[in-house]
Write a structure and sequence with these properties.
Blueprint (H helix, E strand, L loop, with lengths): L1 H14 L4 H8 L3 H13 L1 E5 L13 H4 L4 H9 L8 H11 L3 E7 L16 H4 L6 H12 L2 E7 L26 H17 L6 E5 L11 H11 L4 E5 L11 E4 L21 E6 L16 H13 L2 E7 L9 H17 L7 E2 L8 E6 L2 E6 L6 E5 L5 E6 L8 E3 L3 E5 L10 E7 L11
Parallel strand pairs: 1-2, 1-8, 2-3, 3-4, 4-5, 6-7, 7-8
Antiparallel strand pairs: 9-10, 10-11, 11-16, 12-15, 13-16, 14-15
Helix pairs in contact: 6-8, 6-12, 9-10
The protein binds ligand FHN.
């Protein structure tokens, strides 16, 4: 009987949204981080930037690995890196026009080259190249001036550092010694993270990548995450390890996939019910600058990703790969400008929303803010759209663009909306549905 009561109590706690263990984990998260998570969930749109020595070869950020370039040759390549046309203010102006709320930039990718001035190694842009400047400093200043948050991508995998040993799944014979001191490597990373979190003003967070190269290595994540949260209590830890989130992590990010979809094959299908979510996406098929990759997604497709991400309760982190001279190719700028123009009209149905009462469907997705549900119709040929119940009575419905009233039929089992005609210049017909009460979200907490 006592056991039954205990089981019932546990079930009640679960139904209330928190197993005891989870409640403890939530309780131990500092208020600054909880506020930062809410900010992140509101932000909805970020700009990802992959930029480094690899950009010079125009073949993506994995070129060192793919072409099996020896450390010594890559080191020489790095001595020639001189992105003289880099203009942080222009990059941030583009980000602002696009309507992104944050930027995540590679501070160090798998090639091990630091794109910022660091005392931990001379293998960095300010000390190793003729450029001599610290572009991340310039970017941080421009972001702060514009009110855009800056996150640093940081690779845990390193194809250059002698102490990244034993090597992981991406090892090849590139001229490194077959020995190394792992604890020295961890100290090196923590020293660099300390610099990133103390020299660049307020940082949105650290976006980790590459742990998947040695998933079972003693990464001592608690120490590293503790360091980050001690240095900047509002900085978020965003791990791209493709696993279930662990304690100390703040965002669950999915690569080239909507949450849980795992069409890429390496993401987990587990989706956190507590943490904000993010989907990172290439605009063509490459992260770093790739001179032959012209498979750019259309603006309509990109709007669809942004909408479906929001409908899944996730942000879209959309990538560009700037050129080695520091300029950004017109394919990227044109699409970012178009997305900004789209958001100037439809942004109220994206920013500050959470996933809506109807989970994403083939025809589109729903988002919500308070009593208002936004029905995003991306692909539906018929004049009537039947929906399940929105969980609350409907007060009024109208088309977001132009505000024309939308006829609605409500029954006990659902709602039917009469749609405005589709038009070629409108990738997403947004119907604003104002309800009489906060509709039940199909996932809580974010
Ligand atoms: O290997 C990297 C890749 O180069 C790129 O940085 C992406 C971005 O999400 N992440 C890794 C693959 O998981």
């Amino acid at each position: 009987m006592n056991r039954l009561r205990a089981a019932l109590t546990a079930a009640t706690l679960l139904a209330a949204g928190g197993a005891p263990a989870r409640a403890q984990a939530v309780d131990s998260v500092a208020a600054e981080r909880l506020a930062a998570r809410r900010w992140f969930a509101d932000a909805k749109f970020g700009l990802f930037i992959h930029w480094g020595v690899y950009s010079q070869l125009g073949a993506g950020e994995w070129v060192m690995h793919n072409r099996k370039i020896a450390v010594a040759d890559y080191e020489w390549l790095a001595t020639t890196f001189n992105p003289a046309k880099f203009d942080a203010v222009a990059w941030v102006a583009l980000a602002q026009r696009a309507g992104v709320r944050y930027i995540t930039i590679t501070s160090r990718h798998h090639d091990g080259f630091s794109m910022f001035k660091t005392g931990a190694t001379r293998y960095n842009i300010a000390d190793w190249t003729p450029f001599r400047r610290d572009p991340l400093h310039e970017l941080a200043d421009a972001c702060h001036a514009a009110g855009i948050k800056l996150f640093f991508y940081y690779s845990q995998l390193d194809w250059h550092h002698p102490d990244y040993w034993p090597r992981g799944g991406t090892a090849w014979n590139n001229g490194r010694r077959d020995q190394g001191d792992w604890s020295r490597y961890l100290a090196f990373m923590n020293a660099q993270l300390t610099e990133l979190l103390t020299r660049y003003g307020d940082v949105g967070g650290i976006w980790f990548d590459g742990m998947w190269d040695k998933p079972d290595a003693p990464w001592q994540l608690d120490t590293t995450y503790g360091l980050i949260h001690r240095l900047q209590p509002g900085a978020l830890v965003v791990p791209n390890h493709h696993q279930r989130p662990r304690p100390g992590e703040d965002v669950q990010t999915f690569e080239q996939d909507l949450p849980g979809a795992n069409s890429a094959g390496f993401n987990t299908s587990y989706v956190s019910g507590d943490l904000p979510l993010e989907t990172s996406l290439t605009m063509n098929g490459s992260w770093g600058f790739n001179i032959t990759d012209k498979e750019f997604k259309s603006v309509r497709t990109l709007v669809g990703y942004l909408v479906r991400a929001a409908g899944n309760g996730a942000n879209l982190l959309l990538n560009i790969g700037p050129r080695p001279d520091g300029t950004i190719s017109p394919e990227f700028t044109a699409r970012l400008d178009s997305l900004g123009a789209w958001l100037a009209v439809y942004g109220s149905a994206i920013y500050g929303t959470r996933r809506g009462p109807v989970s994403p469907r083939g025809w589109g997705a729903t988002t919500r803010r308070g009593d208002t549900v936004f029905v995003h119709v991306l692909d539906w040929p018929d004049p009537l759209l039947p929906l399940p119940s929105l969980g609350a009575r409907i007060r009024t419905a109208y088309v977001l663009r132009g505000r024309a009233a939308v006829p609605v039929v409500e029954t006990a089992v659902g709602v039917t909306l009469a749609l405005p005609p589709a038009s070629a210049d409108e990738p997403d017909r947004v119907i604003v549905v104002v309800t009489s009460g906060s509709p039940a979200s199909n996932r809580s907490g974010r």
